[in-house]
Design brief:
The protein is mainly beta. The chain is built from one helix and ten strands.
């Protein structure tokens, strides 16, 4: 139902743009998130987009560097990653839901496979 793309290998300081395309449901009435999982670690919440008021929130570790956005017409969620750091290396997932405890208990079958972001010289 969710397909992430746009990851890759990038040098520190570089940008990437991640996309999350949804099928079978619409983002319009959902809270959508980006979460990430670094090698050997648990899931970490990155950012949230709330459809009701189009508000956005970010983890302190990415605030000012990452930007979450949504294109309703394309039913796609985006995450613009700028000024990337090696510690941003992780698999990035998009996921619906407002319950953080449930969110961080993933990944779940209805999530996508994620997209790998590797930040390295």
């Amino acid at each position: 139902h969710l397909v992430e793309s746009g990851g890759g290998l990038v040098q520190p300081g570089g940008p990437l743009r991640l996309s999350c395309a949804a099928s079978r449901f619409s983002f319009n009435n959902d809270v959508m998130n980006w979460v990430r999982q670094a090698p050997g670690k648990g899931l970490e919440w990155v950012s949230t987009f709330k459809s009701g008021d189009s508000s956005t929130t970010y983890a302190n570790s990415v605030k000012g560097r990452f930007t979450i956005s949504r294109d309703n017409a394309k039913n796609t969620l985006y995450l613009q990653l700028n000024s990337l750091k090696p510690e941003d290396t992780a698999v990035y997932f998009c996921a619906p839901g407002a319950n953080m405890e449930v969110l961080l208990g993933g990944p779940y079958d209805y999530w996508g496979q994620g997209t790998q972001v590797t930040v390295s010289p």
